[in-house]
Amino acid sequence: MAIRTQESLSGFIATDPQLTYTERGEARFYARFGQENYRREEGGEFTKLDPSFGNLVLYRATAERAHERFSKGDQFVAEGYSHDYTYEREGQPIEGSEFVAKKIGHDTARTRYDVDRTPRRTVDRDAAERDTPARGQDRVFDPPEHTRPASDAPVLGR
After folding, report:
1. Alpha helices, H only, 47-152
2. Cα(81)–Cα(7) distance, integer angstroms
3. Average pLDDT for runs of 10 along the chain of length 158
4. What is the rounded CA–CA span in Å between residue 68 and residue 71?
5. Exposed site from 22, 26, 136, 139, fewest CB < 10 Å?
6. Ordered alpha helix ranges (H), 27-104
7. H or E stretch including 102?
8. Can you name the residues that pair with 93 across neighbouring β-strands?
9. Nearest-angstrom CA–CA distance, 48 and 46
10. 126 in helix, strand or coil?
11. CA distances from 79 to 46, 103, 119 (A)
């Protein structure tokens, strides 16, 4: 089986995220992102350079969740694709580029956080609200048992 891969991007949220809606009513998250840059010197030390910046967008439910969870300064890792675009402003063509993230999360190497493993319910929102405890209430969660493989052969991910 082939491993599916996509472009990835890591950096920091450089501006306050904006949540807007497209003409079709779909949520759109937008923020400028930054990436730190360094130059390795002959002696092995690194010199910090000016950061580079770009545009980050997400759509639909992912955009809404990202807008709830991300703030200016947050470190992130995202999966998606680069999108070059052209539009016209005052009769002049404007070219640009953006990273369209399909998935995004905080960078675990640079962010402390708690994980909520409560299953997300999407079928019946009213039933989900009745059955799911409110934030801050105790939840019962039995983590899955991890078993060792029968052989001593190396296993991916262990």
Report:
1. 60-69, 125-131
2. 5
3. 94 98 97 97 95 98 97 98 95 96 95 88 56 51 49 47
4. 8
5. 136
6. 60-69
7. strand 92-106
8. 88
9. 6
10. helix
11. 28, 5, 22
